[in-house]
Amino acid sequence: MNVRLIAGQFGGRIIEGSDSDRTHPMSERIRNALFNKIGSEVEGARVLDAFAGSGSVGFEALSRGAREVTFVERDRAAIKNLLKNIDTLDVENSTTLIKTSVENWLSTSKNERYDIIFADPPYYDPQFSTVLKLAGLLKSDGLMVISYPGRREAPTANGIVVVDNRSYGTAALAFYRKRDA
């Protein structure tokens, strides 16, 4: 399945998606709503795309002016597509691909800090405890957006505040801000 990037430098470009049910690219409608909401925050941002899948969210961020994107993905087919998409868009210098699970990567990434974190874990295994650990990688006042099945409650954790929650049928997005005590 191919995925179309919506706007910005790569708007209209097609990237490789996944034909596997192990990953689910965020729909164009939801990505559009997401980026319309966060708007200019993306410009110049250091972004983490956790559970990256095809990388559609991270590539959309790059297209809209993010300075750099780190993709974390463990699925071999998704990694193959990510590498192809990085090459197709010629963004090797502004991307990093981490080929492991988010949980494993978190155990070694203590000094990393990001302006924006996108987490879109598999719906069959939302891994909320792992996802919430990502908040520790946010810069002060950083933004984290979690995609999760719409029938579940958005997870909560100390140090981050839910600032918005939007439902899109079977999917939902929770927006969090890191607040320093």
Question: Could you explain how this protein is built, in words?
Answer:
- The structure is a single chain.
- By secondary structure, the protein is of the alpha/beta class.
- The protein has a single domain, classed as Vaccinia Virus protein VP39 (Rossmann fold), CATH 3.40.50.
- It contains five helices and nine strands.
- The chain has a seven-stranded mixed beta sheet with strand order 5-4-3-6-7-9-8, covered by helices on one side.
- The longest helix has 14 residues, at 76-89.
- It is globular and about 40 Å long.
Q: How many H/I helical runs?
A: 5
Q: Which percent range describes the beta-strand content?
A: 25-35%
For the biggest sheet, the summary is: 7 strands, mixed
Terminal residue distance: 44 Å
The overall strand count is 9
Q: CATH fold name, please?
A: Rossmann fold
Labels describing this entry:
single chain; 181 residues; alpha/beta; Rossmann fold; seven-stranded mixed beta sheet; 24% helix; globular
How would you summarize this macromolecular structure in one to three sentences?
With 181 residues, the chain is of the alpha/beta class. It has helices at residues 28-38, 56-63, 76-89, 102-106, 128-133; strands spanning 2-4, 14-16, 46-50, 68-73, 95-99, 114-119, 138-149, 160-168, 171-178. The longest helix has 14 residues, at 76-89.
What is this structure's SSE topology?
Blueprint: E1 2-4, E2 14-16, H1 28-38, E3 46-50, H2 56-63, E4 68-73, H3 76-89, E5 95-99, H4 102-106, E6 114-119, H5 128-133, E7 138-149, E8 160-168, E9 171-178
Parallel strand pairs: 3-4, 3-6, 4-5, 6-7
Antiparallel strand pairs: 1-2, 7-9, 8-9
